[in-house]
Design goal:
The structure is a homodimer. By secondary structure, the first copy, chain A, is mainly α. Chain A has 9 helices and no strands.
Chain lengths: 204, 204
DNA sequence: AGATTGAACGATTTGTTGAATATTCAGAAA
DNA sequence: TTTCTGAATATTCAACAAATCGTTCAATCT
């Protein structure tokens, strides 16, 4: 936690409770302020606006998520493909469960994504550095070798984009999504056909 | 064309003109009916509702698109990866240009996608059979060999999902999108690293 | 001074009403 | 009978008013 004893931290905690109980749009700045025993106006000494409080909450939450991704990315005793798999599965499960059993959090994510598109890019970029770390580690271990890891990481994110956007999940269950992600991963790791021997156009 | 001389065809033609001139929501059933010199009520003998007229137009249009995809998928004198690339690029360009210079058609696509989710699935399935054809042809030509082509086609679609949904394109230009699609394709065709020699877990 | 307040302001949302429009159907026309 | 009509009905939309809420800031407190 960034600091529950600071004023800013108190505000974030109060807002977190309200947002997860009643939803983002149904909680007012006045309510959050009163929970902190202060006036609405005073909130603005700590945050530019309501959305920024939500962003702070989301950032804190995402930071924790990043921690578990980092652990998975560098877990000892596992092959690089396996770690990549674990990482992307964790990502999928997190998104799925947020949608399933925490519609409030999902509302917040939606509002932020809509109002602050750069936030989604920031998250992708953060996650990408973890992917790059994984690729670098895999290269050190002799598991693979590729020139531009930043680029490869970006392409992995691009190819798995579907699993980050519940709107694209047309009613699919989590197991179904996992099977699909598994298939995409196999495609990425092995290429279209593991047994293919024929023409490989030079990688640009 | 399904038949410009049939009554149904006349309705589709009239609606197409209206929809592309003024947009789907701004054209009324009464107008379409009057263009066909008939009463509003009579439209319902040929279509269950307004949306179904839009769907008929979209279907007709998509059928044409499928034709050009089929040509690209089986174009002689080109490698399978090249044909796959051509096909997916064509798909991307079509979507992009619809968004760019044909906001009316884009409105229709949005309404249909929202109101008739199964239509999008139908389009994906149609396109998938073309991908399967391409894979089968590639196998005949000895370019690749894989067990479940239907499955591989599904995974290709999954990995390129981003390029079908403009909402995910955060302001990217067409060339930028093309570069990205190119990267994803290379990943799928060659695997994460073309030079990788190490562990390949058995494909399930 | 710096921190805090709470009333005032403007933007957004909500509720409501009337008009516009999709859809239906009893009957007319063929 | 089959095809079509057009007025009747149900739904959706747009515009306006009222209320709510995010945000600001001059005044107050410490």
């Amino acid at each position: 936690m960034s600091g529950k004893d600071t004023v800013r931290g108190k505000i974030v905690e109060a807002a977190k409770k309200r947002f997860s109980h009643f939803g983002y749009s149904k909680t007012t700045m006045a309510e959050v302020a009163s929970d902190c025993a202060m006036s609405p106006g005073n909130l603005y000494r700590f945050f530019p606006g309501k959305l920024d409080i939500a962003e702070a909450i989301a950032t804190e939450d995402f930071e924790g998520h990043l921690d578990s991704l980092r652990k998975l990315a560098l877990a000892p005793g596992k092959s690089a493909p396996q770690r990549l798999r674990d990482l992307l599965f964790e990502e999928l499960r997190r998104t799925y469960h947020k949608l399933e059993k925490d519609p409030r959090a999902y509302e917040m994510a939606t509002v932020i994504a809509h109002e602050r598109p750069e936030f989604a890019n920031w998250m992708l970029a953060k996650e990408r550095t973890i992917l790059v770390n994984l690729l670098e580690d895999a290269e050190r271990g002799g598991e693979l070798r590729c020139a531009d890891k930043e680029h490869v990481a970006e392409m992995i994110q691009s190819a798995t984009m579907k699993f980050r956007y519940p709107q694209l999940w047309s009613k699919l269950s989590l197991p179904a999504l996992e099977r699909e992600l598994d298939g995409v991963l196999k495609l990425m790791i092995n290429g279209v056909c593991p047994n293919a021997a024929a023409n490989k156009p030079a990688a640009a």
